[in-house]
Amino acid sequence: MTEQSSKKRISVKTPEEIEIMGTANRIVAGVLTMLKDEVVPGVTTYYLDKISEEYCRDHGATPAFKGYRGFPCSLCASVNEQVVHGIPSRKVRLKEGDIISVDFGSYYKGFYGDSAVTIPVGTVSAELERLLRVTETSLKKGIEQVAIGNRISDISKAVQTYAETNGFSVVRQFVGHGIGSELHEAPEIPNYVQKMPSPRLLAGMVLAIEPMVNMGTEKVKVLRDQWTVVTEDSKPSAHFEHTVAVTDNGPLILSTLD
Ligand code: MG
Ligand code: MG
User: Fold this and answer.
1) What distance in Å separates the CA atoms of residue 115 and residue 170, rounded to the nearest whole number?
2) Could you please report the per-residue DSSP string of 4-44?
3) 52 CA to middle of ligand 1, Å?
4) Cystine design at 128: which of 67, 98, 124, 255 (Cβ 3.0–4.6 Å)?
């Protein structure tokens, strides 16, 4: 999930807390890895939500999004022009050539995990493939900036520069976030450079970095369901997210099975 604003202090986690967050995030990585196999033409987003919640509970964690500010499901499932926070439904059946952004959060022993990927449904157009590749690489470029002494704005700049150089736009209205004993903590992690002072990174900070990259305009709007965020021009959008700890040795990606 993404955040619109928070202006609180940035928490620093102990190695033991980061260890627990590693487990929480590995469970999320397990869900997303499973979904890469389960996303095929004909499945409903309702089914994807069910199996994601089941996997999470079977591994001893609680789905973090279910009930969060009233969100009705465990998985955010956003198809094509939907950017983030799409609500799974029996009525949404995936078709060949679609893309679907799946975002999952877990809660385990007092800490949160949060990660997202955009998955092609069957074979997609070359331009969609490029959107997915560029968005995933922009996340990688952002993560490469996770180093003690760097600023949050170094992450923002790397993401924005890569996405825009490749002809796409980055969403402004929703941003990444710190994560820990709360799903959304300080600092905000925008995917674009803001003209204001930006916090320096310290060992023990844990960040959910999540570029949302649009094929057309950067502008987005929220549908009447109060959740689903779509592009204003109805062009497709992709979303990749990792939870990353700041360490003395650089970034430690927690939301991975490796
Ligand atoms: Mg998320
Ligand atoms: Mg998030």
Assistant:
1) 18
2) S----PPP---HHHHHHHHHHHHHHHHHHHHHHHH--TT-B
3) 14
4) 124
Q: Which two tokens stand for residue 195?
A: 């003209």
CA 118/CA 136 separation, integer angstroms: 9
Residue 76 host element (H or E): strand 75-79
Give per-residue pLDDT as tens, 44-95. 999 999 999 999 999 999 999 999 999 999 999 999 999 999 999 999 999 9
What CATH architecture does domain 15-253 belong to? Answer: Alpha-Beta Complex (3.90)
- How many whole angstroms from 76 Cα to the centroid of ligand 1? 8
Strand partners, 100: 79, 119
pLDDT over 80 (residue 117)? yes
- Residue-wise pLDDT for 146-200, tens only, equals 999 999 999 999 999 999 999 999 999 999 999 999 999 999 999 999 999 999 9
How far is the CA of 243 from the CAs of 104, 109, 246, in angstroms? 11, 17, 10
Which residues are found with C-beta within 5 Å of the ion, ligand 2? Answer: 1, 114, 208
Domain map of the chain by residue range? 15-253
Please give the distance, rounded to the nearest whole angstrom, from the Cα atom of residue 115 to the centre of ligand 2.
Answer: 7
Q: How far apart are CA 224 and CA 144, in angstroms?
A: 37
Average pLDDT, the chain: 97
In this structure, which ligand is nearest to the CA of 65? 1
To the question of pTM greater than 0.90 for the whole model, the response is yes
For 115, the enclosing helix (H) or strand (E) is: strand 111-120
Confidence of residue 4 (pLDDT cuts 50, 70, 90): low
Whole-angstrom distance, CA of residue 258 vs CA of residue 166: 29
